[in-house]
Amino acid sequence: MLKNDQLDQWDRENFFHPSTHLAQHARGESPNRIVTGGSGAHIEDRDGNKLLDAFAGLYCVNVGYGRPEIADAIAAQAKELAYYHAYVGHGTEASITLSKMILDRAPKNMSKVYFGLGGSDANETNVKLIWYYNNILGRPEKKKIISRWRGYHGSGLMTGSLTGLELFHKKFDLPLTQVLHTEAPYYYRRDNLDQTEEQFVEHCVAKLEELIEREGADTIAAFIGEPILGTGGIVPPPKGYWAAIQKVLKKHDILLVADEVVTGFGRLGTMMGSDHYEMEPDLITIAKGLTSAYAPLSGSIVGDKMWKVFEQGTDEYGPIGHGWTYSAHPIGAAAGIANLKLIDELNLVQNAGEVGNYLNAQMHAALDDHPNVGNIRGEGMMCAVEFVKDKDSRTFFDPSQKIGPQIAGALGQKKVIGRAMPQGDILGFAPPFCLTKQEADEVVSKTADVVKAMDFS
Ligand code: PLP
Fold this sequence. Notes:
The chain is an alpha/beta fold. The protein has helices at 4-14, 22-26, 56-59, 68-80, 93-105, 119-136, 157-162, 197-215, 241-251, 273-276, 304-317, 330-345, 348-367, 403-413, 437-453; strands at residues 35-39, 42-45, 50-53, 110-116, 144-148, 179-182, 220-225, 255-259, 283-286, 298-303, 373-378, 383-387, 416-417, 419-420, 426-429. Keywords: Aminotransferase, Pyridoxal phosphate, Transferase.
C-alpha cells in the first residue's frame, strides 16, 4: 500500500481536480483528503478519520456507502457481460429492465428513457431533444431555453450556460446566447423585504412573463428547473410557485424540463420531486440517485407528447443522430436495478422524509435564535443554514470573509461533512437516506457547537 505522503505528492503533481483552487492545491496550500472506504452514512480516509458524510458525497450516495447488494450486482454483470452498446435497437436485460423500473416510478404521461452517464450530459441530451422536437414541428425559431439564476444543471457548454451561478460562467465565455435566465424562486433573498410569499410568487411570474414578452414566445422552447434549488442554495420554492409558473408555460406552449438529478428517487420523501410539487414535466433529468453513485448513469425521461414527435421525426428523416458509446452501459444499469430495489426493500424514501423532517426540525430548534443565522430551510433530506451579518436588516457578509467555508471547515474538524454552497454563506446538508435520528442529532449538535464558537465579527 502506498503511503499517504507518496500519494499526496502524486496527487498534487498529476491530478486535475474538478471545482478546486488549482494553484493552491498544486502548491500544497490547501488540504486534500484521500478517501479509502465507507459504510452507511460514514466515510473513512487514509489518516484514519471516520466522518459522518451529511452531504452523501455530492448528494448522490442515497442508499449509503458499502452496500454489498449493489457491489455484487455490478460484479455479476461485469462477469457476465461488461459491455455492449445500445445503438440500432441493441440492449441488455439490465438496461431494458431498468427503463421499465424507472417508468414505473415516474410521473404519469412519461414514455421512454434515454440513458447517459451523468447529469450534465443528460441535460445536453435534453437541449438537443428540445431543438429536434421544434424542428420536426416546423418551428425552427422556437429554440431558446429559460433557466433560473442559481439553478444548477451541469458544467458542459450548454449545461454550464443553463447553470445560473457566476462561478460556472466566469472566464469560460458562458452563458451561450440560446440561454436566458430568470428570477430565482428564493424568497429569503427577495429584493423587496415587504413582499409576502404570495406577492413574491407573483413577482417571479411577472419577471418570467416580461422575459417571454421581450424575446417573443415563438423563440422560446423550454423552461428548465430543479423542483427545489440545490447547488444554488438548497431553496424550496415559495408556496404556489410551480403551479403559477406552469400556467405561464402552458399559455405560451413552452416545454417544462424538471431537473431531478438531486430530487429523483426519494430525496424529498417522495419518489420524484415532480410528485412533491405537482409538476407535469415534458422531460425529466435523472442521475445521482438512480444508482446512488455506485456506477455512473443518468437518464432523460421523455414524455408522451415529445415521444410522438420523435417517432414522426425518424419516419421523416431516419434514425435519430444522437448517442454515446456508453449509453445504457450494462454495469450502470445493473447498479441502478440493485439500487432501486434496495430503496424499496429498506423503505428509504419514507425514511428520507421522516428523518429529513426531524433533521430540519432539530436544526430550527438549535439555531433559529442565533443572531447570525438568518434562515433555516429544507425539504425531505435536504437542509440549509444561511448566515447573515445582521438578521433584522438581512445584511449579508462580504464574500471575502468566507464565513460559509470557515464553518464547513470547522464542522469537518468535528468529523461531520456539510457543504459550503458556492454562492452565499450557506451551509448545506443532504445526507444519505439511511441516516438515523441519532446521526441527525450529531449533525445538528456539532453544527450548533461550531456556529456558537464562530467569530462573526
Ligand atoms: N443537475 C443538477 C440538479 C445537479 O445538481 C447536477 C450536479 O450536481 C447536475 C445536473 C450535473 O450532474 P453531473 O455533475 O453528474 O454532470
